[in-house]
Specification:
This protein has 240 residues and is an alpha/beta fold. The protein has one domain (3-239): Acetylglutamate kinase-like (Carbamate kinase, 3-Layer(aba) Sandwich). It is built from eight helices and nine strands. The chain has helices spanning 30-45, 62-68, 73-96, 119-127, 145-155, 189-194, 202-211, 225-230, and strands at 10-15, 49-54, 102-106, 115-116, 131-135, 160-165, 186-187, 215-219, 237-239. A nine-stranded mixed sheet has the order 4-3-5-2-1-6-8-9-7, with helices on both faces. The structure holds uridine-5'-diphosphate.
């Protein structure tokens, strides 16, 4: 598909660490890596500029870790951000093994292994068709990579924020527990915020609302989903 035909020119893709995890639910699984890289490749091949914001929950979540170990919460959050750098490197290698040019940009300088995030540099990589992987979240503790994804979407003027999840979109209740849970096709930002629907962190949704960035919540585990979204198919839940 030529670039002009795609509904989106530039997107931010938020993938949680869970999306890369091994079958036991933690660490990095090679099958998951290959599957995710394949999904990204389809979108990239369609001519869409992709910046991936990668989470780190498969390795460490700051708040939980601080509670479990006697480590200050702030330090634990920095550890969580460093975990996202590990995921970013794994995803980079997997994408490059498929012939896709990539760059990792980290919000915390880790200059021996990747570039530091600079907005103009990020935009340049995207314009050159490089899949850009954004690591270390916002670079600041006490928030999550959801907020980093929303910030990135605003900063690089993305057409949408694609939020990959483990289910088909946003439901009225937890679909794994409630058989009557209803999948929403569309939601307003206000509804998500007021009803505290589990889409992303409220601060991330608020940022998207204030800057008019639509959020598309979709199932990462259905092959071809992302490609179908960029072709204009109604998949998952659109928050706008
Ligand atoms: N984190 C942080 N600041 C950020 C992004 C992440 O402190 O801007 C920390 C936080 O402790 C978080 C961890 O890094 O729990 C991993 O990120 P996240 O929970 O967003 O990963 P995901 O759930 O998407 O895998």
């Amino acid at each position: 598909m030529a670039q002009a035909e795609a509904k989106y020119r530039r997107v931010i893709l938020k993938i949680s660490g869970e999306g890369l995890s091994a079958p036991q639910g933690f660490g990095i699984g090679s099958e998951a890596l290959i599957r995710v890289a394949g999904e990204i490749q389809q979108v990239h091949d369609a001519g869409v500029q992709v910046a991936v914001v990668i989470g780190g929950g498969n390795i460490l979540r700051g708040k939980i870790f601080a509670e479990q170990c006697r480590i200050s919460e702030t330090t634990a959050h920095y550890m969580g951000m460093l975990a996202t750098v590990i995921n970013a490197l794994a995803l980079q290698e997997t994408l490059e093994s498929r012939g896709i040019e990539t760059r990792v940009l980290s919000s915390i300088p880790v200059s021996s292994v990747c570039e530091t995030f600079v907005r103009r540099r990020c935009v340049r990589h995207l314009e050159k068709g490089r899949v850009t992987i954004l690591a270390a979240g916002t670079g600041r503790p006490h928030v999550t990579t959801d907020t980093a994804a929303a910030l990135a979407a605003v900063e690089v003027k993305a057409d949408a924020l694609f939020k990959a999840t483990q289910v088909d979109g946003v439901y009225s209740a937890d679909p794994k527990k409630d058989p009557n849970a209803r999948l929403f096709e569309k939601l307003s930002y206000d509804r998500v915020i007021n009803d505290r629907l589990e889409v992303m962190d409220i601060s991330a949704v608020d940022l998207c609302q204030r800057n008019g960035v639509p959020i598309i919540v979709f199932n990462l585990h259905r092959p071809g989903n992302m490609k179908r979204i960029i072709e204009g198919e109604k998949i998952g839940t659109v928050v706008s």
